[in-house]
Design goal:
alpha+beta, 1 helix, 6 strands
Length: 108
Amino acid sequence: TCLGASKSTAKKLKREKWAEARGVAAAPSSSAGPSTQKNEGGLEYVTLAGPTGSTSTVYTLGACVTSYVDGGTEFLKVRPDAKMDGSKPISGGLAFCWPQFGPDSGLE
């Protein structure tokens, strides 16, 4: 919808102003941004890279950050027996949002 497009444009402008005020190069607005990839189990994830060479891996399942590397040091751990195929929530890493596991109870 037109309203949705306007809100999206406003959000992009707000992010660009925020980044500019802090001296951070914002991604060009024509850029599609990071693209999703899939692991061996079929789960989608995004790899992000910072200006200092730091990287992070974020899975779309539960918005789970499974890796953050800075200066060659990995700061997050994922359980070695974690199911990385979507059959269960990822065990380990950092859940970016508060996931709700189990039946939907109408939480918004």
